[in-house]
Write a sequence for this structure.
């Protein structure tokens, strides 16, 4: 059986879960409290990060390397387009969310509001929360600008770029940190992606200590 | 003419410079003081980061997305192998250096020793310098462990993984932060990569305020 070692509110884990589900690759999800740095876990991934995928007796780490591998070994349905220019744009946007958005928004909001509590590292730093709340507005506006010209973030087809973005935003939505009223076009995009069968497992996530808010799994949010 | 907006001591810029040079794609290098957030620069890359490549009237950002694009459009010589398993391993290692090594070592050492001075943001934080100096040992040992089993970091051929690693290590070597005596096998690997024609431009870098140390460009260091 394939296994994904993950944490429910890890956006990198969610990106891989979405790719696997879209490609109908079944996996058993194993929750990993990666900050406890369990010896077995470090043996699977010396980087000590989630997600880690165990598939066909191979153990793989790094969400982007895993998604590229899945794309090459399970090409249908495609999450990367065929032409080099659009593939570039998908990868640029995946990096935009996993690097820039993560640093400016996710680690600021989730890091302070969720991970401090889960890991027991004290109270949220309100300067970080404020900076994250400010930065997310700019990012939502950037998405609106892209979606004004394209059906999906990187072009006319749904790709890994949409999954990367939805992975971060769905984590933040679990703690009610996304203002969906800021842009109708971004809200419509999220409604489309939220209603895909691949999203179901993510909408069913429950994190102890953080009750799921009503709008989170509601397709009509 | 192709142009690369870069900063000489940016490891992400160096990874792209190495790929371009190995593939014999000529570019004009334009030094970008990205922290000054010049309006023209932000128009080229709203993420505000280097490197940015202007090629055939396209403007591209994110070093990994750029390197994948170069691989697809200029496949010879190949910096990604053919089989999916080794391609995965290359990408995992590129992420290892650009994510983990960067966070644990490069930003700690370069960030404190070089960028504070260049950007005028005060004195180095000695706790960070200490943490970076400690972490690099572990990373050199990890490289030695890999190279004990393989000719190059990801397998028997030189790949983007070697360029990602050499990009970070060459920046650190410019400020004499790499102890090459720690592992003979890592030193041999660096000597091999340093002697490639693609490395020449990097060995010629001069950063004002930081005179190039004697061993830096010496192939017999
Ligand atoms: N580049 C990695 C990043 C994964 C990552 O940072 N995961 C976080 C959880 S969201 C983690 O495990 N952090 C632990 C650490 O950095 O030590 C990927 O894409 O998989
Ligand atoms: N994911 C980007 C990261 C590039 C990056 O972080 N570059 C640094 C210089 S080494 C930078 O421009 N930082 C400015 C910033 O983060 O605002 C890439 O691979 O190109």
């Amino acid at each position: 059986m394939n296994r994904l070692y993950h944490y429910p509110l890890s956006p990198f884990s969610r990106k891989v879960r979405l790719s696997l589900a879209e490609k109908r690759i079944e996996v058993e999800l194993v929750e990993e409290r990666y900050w406890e740095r369990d010896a077995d876990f470090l043996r699977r991934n010396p980087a000590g990060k989630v997600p880690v995928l165990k598939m066909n007796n191979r153990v793989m780490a790094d969400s982007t390397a895993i998604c590229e591998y899945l794309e090459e070994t399970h090409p249908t349905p495609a999450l990367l387009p065929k032409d080099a220019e659009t593939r570039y744009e998908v990868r640029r946007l995946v990096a935009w969310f996993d690097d820039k958005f993560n640093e400016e928004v996710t680690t600021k909001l989730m890091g302070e509001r969720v991970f401090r509590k889960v890991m027991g590292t004290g109270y949220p730093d309100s300067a970080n929360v404020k900076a994250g709340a400010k930065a997310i507005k700019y990012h939502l506006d950037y998405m609106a600008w892209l979606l004004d010209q394209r059906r999906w973030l990187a072009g006319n087809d749904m790709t890994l770029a949409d999954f990367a973005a939805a992975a971060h935003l769905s984590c933040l939505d679990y703690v009610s940190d996304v203002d969906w009223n800021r842009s109708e076009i971004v809200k419509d995009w999220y409604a489309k992606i939220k209603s895909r069968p691949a999203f179901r497992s993510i909408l069913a996530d429950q994190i102890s200590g953080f009750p799921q808010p009503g709008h989170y799994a509601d397709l009509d949010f």
Chain B touches chain A at residues 46-47, 49, 58, 60-62, 64-66, 68-69, 72-73, 84-85, 87-88, 91-92, 94-96, 99-100, 142 (CB under 8 Å).
